């Protein structure tokens, strides 16, 4: 029984209080807790930075794709504008050639085409224009180019998937590069014209090209209908003969343009050397009352007679007056002086033929 009594007494005894921790142990526990909290905060910050970086990366990637699409759209419009301008220039040259051939070879109802009035020419041209040309402006379509490039969304998704595997530092560096690329592309777009201006220019050029195509085709139809060389209608010529007529007309037109450029250059040089007037100025000012000395000073004009002559090396009084912009009386004195010097030969019908052998200058 003694042992049971001792056991009951020991069970009723209160437990001893725990010994207080030392100051060093308490400080160590506090440092451990602070370090743990700091690490958790840092992990949370890094995670937040990575999440924010992914959002920024997706936004910048989409923005860059949009800027690239706009830049490609503007480049397409500029290329279309360049092509339309080149086409319009080619059509203008062709229309100019057709008008030149009509003036030189065409006859309408027994009258030379070049003698027709502006109203008669307009009415004749109107009959050759296609019926739908009046509605060309209504039927033309606006330039339509998709804004999004094919596969741009696929590239964006692929880049976003790759960004997930990047570290926070790599992701931030990638975002910096994307921001720089966006700024560069955006600056290039802002330096360009607005989309509305480009669209208006393309539409206007397309309209001009369509009108010039109709006009050129009408002039060509008129020449094929009314053109004749030495009494032979162009429509009755062989393909080779008609092609030769077109080629000769193109060469003659180019030579006429060259002559006009030479005359203009000669006038500019004369004005710069002699401000009081060029060699032909006395004839122009006095309406033909020029002296023999003034006519002799007009020798530079001799080289132009061959360029102004027709297929038979003939030149008319009116033609010289028109080319030099002077009255017929002054032009006649120039031609007579050229005859005296052996440059031209006067014909009984009033024309002048360029001499086969030019006198030494």
Supply database-style keywords.
361 residues, mainly alpha, 2 domains, two-stranded antiparallel ribbon, 13 helices
Order the strands across the largest sheet as they lie in space: 5-7-6
Q: What structural category do the secondary elements indicate?
A: mainly alpha
**How many beta-strand runs?**
7
Q: What is the overall number of helices?
A: 13
How many individual domains? 2
Order of helices and strands: HHEEHHHHHEEHHHHEHHEE
Uncertain runs: 132-152, 275-299
Q: What sort of overall outline do the alpha carbons produce when their principal axes are compared?
A: elongated
Strand residues, percent: under 5%
Helix content: 55-70%
What does the main sheet amount to? 3 strands, antiparallel
The residue-averaged pLDDT reads 72
Q: What is the CA-based Rg, rounded? A: 45 Å
Distance between the termini: 164 Å
Tell me about this structure.
This protein is mainly alpha-helical and 361 residues long. It folds into two domains: 195 residues, no CATH class; 115 residues, Winged helix-like DNA-binding domain superfamily/Winged helix DNA-binding domain (Arc Repressor Mutant, subunit A, Orthogonal Bundle). It is built from 13 helices and seven strands. The strands form three sheets. Strands 5-7-6 form a three-stranded antiparallel β-sheet. A two-stranded antiparallel ribbon has the order 1-2. The radius of gyration is 45 Å and the shape is elongated. About 13% of the residues have low confidence.
